[in-house]
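> tool_call: predict_assembly(chains=two)
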Amino acid sequence: MTLRETNTFDFKSIRAPSEVMRLEHMGCCFPTRLSFMRILIRKLIDNKSNIKTHIWDMDQNGFGHAVLTVELDSKTFSLIAFSNELEQSMRTDRVIASAWDASFALFDGIPSNSDIDRLKNQLPLQEAGRYSKSEIVISRANKSVRIFNSIVDCLSRGLQPPEELINRIGYLMRTTAVYGNGKFGICDRNEIKSSPIFSPPFQAEMLTVYLIRHFSIELVHHIAKKINSKKFVFLDKKIQRHIGIGNATGLGMAPFLINHPVLLNNWLMVKETALSRMLEKKTINKIDKNKVISLLNRALNHLKEWITDDRRQKNRISRTIKEWIILKTEIDINTLSKLYPLQIIFDLTKNNSIECQELMISLILEIGSNEVDGLENCLESSLGVKLAPEMKLNELKNIIESNFRWVFDINFELKASNSKFWYVSEEKLEPRLGNRFIEKGSELEQPLDIAKQIQNLHKDINNFSSEICVAEFLMKHPYHRYIVKRVQTNVWAPYSEIQSNLIGENCLPIDMLRFKLSFFGASKFDPKSDKWTRVNLYQGAPLGDEIDSLENDDWWLKPMNSNI
Amino acid sequence: MKCSITELKSLIYNSCLGLKFEVGVCEEISEAVSCLEGYKLKASIELNKSFHCPKSAIKKIRVSNKSICFGHSRVMYEGISSVDYFRTGIYEEILFEKLDSPMILIGLGLINGVNNFQITHSSNVIGYVDQGNFFWDINFQNRDIEITIKKKKYTPSSFNIYSEAIDIDDKIWKKFELLSCQRLVPQSKLSRNEGAGAGYIDND
């Protein structure tokens, strides 16, 4: 369902696509209460779900298999996990690996023994395996060599691991791929998206990762206990909560945003609508005032806890810390007692960095459960990109000239504007970004050169009578079919296009990755280049036995040692 | 080969790209064919035959006030255009002197949400799309034949029924896999060294 379909989209006081759809802006986003992980946790809490261990068949080294179950909307879903010994020579956390410490499937229902036997042979193969419609998601993960064994060692000796170590790394396992939507024969998204549980985007994938997090904590307990059951202690709950699941995200995620323009539009429309609703609140109550003050402190702690070696991100963090400290002195109960208090605190960030503005937006949304949470059903797209063949060329031209003015700021005669090309690699069928003037293969370029295609379309339209219709134009120029559909879609989906040159010298894919990951709910972005980043999923989230009260949904940017 | 609809659609899209069809054509055809396969019609086999068509824009058409006539036609081009024209409502009748795959044409109509979309051959209705339902005469297996499209109400004896299980002929699947490989670029050392996970700490 889109906001357009529900007529709830409020065009007042939202930010224009020309502002928020620039790649640099998108690369500054933070998780919000509308992030997909947050939606899932609320759903689990609403359902009073409980993670149960159905099978735990692990040896003393933690090798074997397990089945964890969870109930949602009266249906049972299972995480089937296989944990294997991995030869050191086979260990790599890159997507191009072919063996892993553990492999997983989210299974519809409770698997039979024959299902488990079947998956025992297939799941460790991952992309090379074949799956059935009973599998909704498949994934794999490696243990963090920096932390896993040292935590086992501590717990087996009755000690808690150093908090500094937990904060620096933040996860016991790191996934390198989470596959959904029909991949390798698993269940199609279309078959599950009508269910309220899985209607918002990526809910099945988010459930899988949440269960993997639970599994990783259980596994570390299991091995430590086997080493010394007398001295063994469980990890402190506050440490457990601070353990998430690591993920190294690369270019594989970037083309998704281009290939799903309506979905992209809906995510942005929902976020902007949520913001608009909050800014229009004339007053806020005492609880919310205190909450804002508390979240200002929490956000600052988060910024200080955020470790990265990436120079660009490091500079952004230190600038945001400085700006945030000033904001904290400007925002008090009196400020929040004025009329339109959220508009006031939002305006205070207008001359600050984009990162600071986006952090404030996430904070503002955080207190808006009544205004914001219902929008989660509008994140999904039921409408696709469709052609309007009856449209006259003059109308198409007008759309380009009004909605795509940014395209004409790019001079494609310049080498710098064409320097990159997107392709799919032969080695692992993964998207890659090449240098057109150094690397081979640009003739097999993927169609992510949206701005260039729009310029070319505009030129070709000028050679036709403005009174002919799109059907006739495309009959003569089938090459433009793809881009015409996108241009037409932008009329009713104004946030459907990233307003940057994605093949230009200055294109930084890392900004696309951070944008998408922020919608997932990931935090502590740790870019390792302009093409990949490490992130932490579910850090601070309630544990498997804590998904019983909405009070436990309060985990936005939550630091380990904090009551705020 | 048992597969999911998304998997099949993606494979067909990539095969079309591998054969260097235009991206918009790849999108349309992959959606139409995978949709038909969901109804147990062997559209993948049809497509495999249509893949051999020449890739060029449409040149030969005859237009009158009420009809448009395509010459020897390919579903990948004239077929797609005919559905576009049908949706505009400009012509009452759309004719093909010969069309390579009438079956895929019905899929194109279906994915574009057309209504009262009637396909005839020698005055016999062989296919019909309306309100998201469709009828296809499974006994009709001709290719490269004269076809007419009209907007006209028709009541078929029954509509085709959606089946969740898709099973593609193994040889066709392998062929499509090979074709889809033609869009791949051997990874350069440079790009491998910059991919996710690369850098100072490979293992975490």
